[in-house]
Amino acid sequence: MAASNTSSPNSALYDWAQLVRLPNVFTVLADVGAAFLLVAGGPQPVARLVAVILAGVCLYWAGMILNDVFDVEKDKAERSSRPLAAGRIGLGKARMAGWALLLLGIIIAAVSGYLPAQDRPTTWVPGVIAIALAGMIVAYDGPLKKTPAAPAAMGGCRVLSFLLGASPCMVMAADEPLFPKYVLGAACGFGVYIMGITTMGRREAVGGPSHHLPTGFLVTCFGFILLATAPWLAPPEDQVVLLDWDPAVVRMFPLLIAMIAFPVVIRAFRAVRSPSPAHIQMAIRVGILSMIPLAAAYAYLGAGQVWAMVIFALVVPSLLLAARFRVT
């Protein structure tokens, strides 16, 4: 009996990977990295890019851990195989790890704005965005989780995650907005998209007809529209002169987003028509992992096809790990 309470290092790592929903972390690498590439036009300054990505990962993992900490009693009834619900990871240890990662993410983000960056000035913006993101994470995991505002809070987390990626390149100026309109448009597109996916997933464990499914489907589609049109918020002259975007890429961008959206829309529509847990969970799984090609499209717009392929390549480890770990 005593042996059943012990675990090898490998099994312990597996439990922590399950707790943080390891396949999903590549969506954070993708959207934070793509936002940086979009506004910087490339990976420079590298130190700030690496730091802000690390900050995004810490904050995301904190959110995943604290999500299960807050939901441990519910999981014992509905998802007894989860690491905390099953007792494979101690609740106190998970709580400490979650809050520590939250604080670490804020610190790394704040430092990222002050790392050497050639001709770029220092900026406090990443620290402020990280604090806002941490607050939204706690609000979603805690008081908002069981309310109608939960999907909007989850969407807000993705808005702030994208803005976090762009933030090391942003400096407050008296006569200019903090973030360009096209960056805000893209961030809102990702946020609305995830809000729709989250709305659809509210009954993933039990299935059955629900207004959440058609509502989430429509919100998801609206998110795709925002993502497809956000680059148009940049004035045409800025697209060529300031941002150095390829006009051909700008013209074909809505088609590129539509191609990525197609499999998500098909699976989401199937879940609406036949709301079994399996169909809903497949739609959510595909929807979450499609964050990576969507982010790659924005990397393509801002930094070209090589960096787009780097971001898109994150699909490979994400899919491989998704075969072993749940993404929801």
TrEMBL record:
CDD domains: PT_UbiA_1 (cd13964)
GO cellular-component term (any): membrane
Bilayer-spanning residue ranges: 21-40, 46-66, 97-117, 123-140, 179-201, 213-233, 253-270, 282-300, 306-325
Record's keyword terms, sorted: Cell membrane, Membrane, Transferase, Transmembrane, Transmembrane helix
Lineage: superkingdom: Bacteria
Keyword Kinase: no
Keyword Flavoprotein (UniProt): no
GO MF annotation: an example: transferase activity, transferring alkyl or aryl (other than methyl) groups
Localization in the cell: Membrane
Gene3D superfamilies registered for this protein in UniProt: UbiA prenyltransferase
Membrane topology designation: Multi-pass membrane protein
Protein name (database record): Prenyltransferase
Originating organism: Rubripirellula lacrimiformis
Lineage: Bacteria, Pseudomonadati, Planctomycetota, Planctomycetia, Pirellulales
